[in-house]
């Protein structure tokens, strides 16, 4: 399976064996030979002036990062240059007369062959029912999502680069349509519409409908005086009312931290889920707000007085 730490070790081995920095070695042996004119493992002035801004899951612009793990996460490139690299893979596999590949077809086949499960020497290979196979790799840094995949037998490939944490869903849709165009079928991982997504849609619609009715109920009861501001409740029940406000607020905060923050893990979870999951988030957030409001305006208790009637003779 993929190991970012493993690529960092390879980076150090390259530097130890060649006596060159990893950046210089890659420029000499790969970048220059494939004429990747806008690619580098160094953030030079030209790249810095032309680099795209990156965006988080909420659409906020986020700062760029310079990774010391150059082999795993440090390449600056463009779709044009990555397409040149992709074409070199296809030419190496098919060994055309105009091939610009840097290694032999035998080694290309070795790189493309899975070592265990579907992972080979840097590539993920998947066998399809029609006998073809897809070979490629995705990329995921904070604020960036990418994918590069080829179908050697069809001499076809696709390169997708996005500058957003939400790029995963775009990748899935593009990959699905490209595979249908190339082969007439989609790999299961890249089907944009499935049962799970439909369930999310229906659950979200149901939640918003129920929450709308609950919100309407709260408004009506406040207007009729059946719900009063928390300061008017009896002191003995005040603590329980405050707790009722705090709990939904905490649930909302925990939800956003887990799915949209980087407190628990380095990567944000939300971009890995279907795009439609955002509606579940808004439904949960609305639920938390409404229950907090219902705590701020608790129900007014009706106190019944019992009178004893006595008869006198």
**Averaged pLDDT, please?**
82
Give the strand content: 5-15%
Radius of gyration, in Å, reads 29 Å
CATH architecture group name of the largest domain = 3-Layer(aba) Sandwich
Uncertain segments are: none
Order of helices and strands: HHHEEHHHEEEEHHHH
Count of alpha and pi helical runs: 10
- Specify the CATH class of the largest domain: Alpha Beta
Biggest β-sheet, characterized? Answer: 4 strands, antiparallel
Strands, count: 6
Kindly report how far apart the N and C termini lie. Answer: 97 Å
**Oligomer designation:** single chain
Structural classification: alpha+beta
Q: Which superfamily, in CATH terms, is the homologous superfamily of the largest domain? A: DD-peptidase/beta-lactamase superfamily
Descriptive key words:
313 residues; alpha+beta; Beta-lactamase; four-stranded antiparallel β-sheet; two-stranded antiparallel sheet; 10 helices; 6 strands; elongated
Question: What is the element layout, followed by pairings?
Answer:
Layout: H1 4-18, H2 22-31, H3 45-50, E1 54-55, E2 61-62, H4 70-73, H5 79-94, H6 105-112, E3 124-127, E4 133-141, E5 144-151, E6 156-162, H7 167-183, H8 195-223, H9 238-260, H10 277-296
Helix pairs in contact: 5-6, 8-10, 9-10
């Amino acid at each position: 399976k993929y190991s970012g730490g493993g690529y960092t070790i390879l980076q150090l081995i390259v530097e130890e064996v060649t006596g060159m920095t990893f950046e210089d070695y890659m420029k000499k042996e790969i970048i220059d030979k494939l004429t990747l004119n806008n690619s580098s493992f160094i953030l030079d002035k030209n790249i810095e002036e032309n680099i795209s801004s990156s965006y988080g899951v909420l659409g906020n612009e986020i700062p760029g990062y310079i990774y010391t793990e150059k082999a795993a996460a440090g390449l600056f490139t463009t779709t044009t240059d990555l397409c040149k690299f992709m074409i070199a893979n296809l030419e190496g596999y098919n060994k055309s007369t105009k091939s610009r590949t840097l290694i032999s077809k035998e080694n290309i086949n070795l790189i493309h062959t899975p070592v265990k499960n579907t992972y080979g020497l840097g590539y993920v290979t998947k066998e399809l029912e029609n006998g073809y196979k897809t070979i490629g790799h995705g990329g995921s840094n904070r604020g960036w999502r990418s994918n590069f995949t080829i179908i050697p037998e069809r001499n076809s490939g696709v390169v997708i680069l996005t500058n957003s944490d939400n790029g995963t869903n775009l990748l899935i849709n593009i990959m699905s349509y490209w595979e249908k165009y190339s082969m007439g079928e989609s790999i299961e991982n890249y089907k944009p519409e499935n049962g799970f997504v439909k369930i999310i849609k229906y659950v979200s619609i149901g939640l918003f409908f129920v929450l709308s009715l609950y919100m309407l109920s709260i408004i009506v009861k406040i207007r009729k005086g059946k719900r009063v501001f928390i300061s008017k409740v009896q002191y003995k029940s005040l603590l329980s009312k405050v707790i009722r406000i705090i709990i939904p607020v905490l649930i909302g905060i925990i939800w956003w931290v887990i799915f949209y923050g980087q407190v628990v893990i380095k990567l944000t979870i939300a971009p890995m889920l279907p795009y439609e999951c955002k509606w579940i988030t808004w439904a949960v957030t609305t639920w938390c707000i409404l229950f907090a409001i219902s705590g701020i305006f608790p129900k007014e208790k009706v106190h019944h007085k019992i009178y004893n009637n006595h008869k006198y003779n």
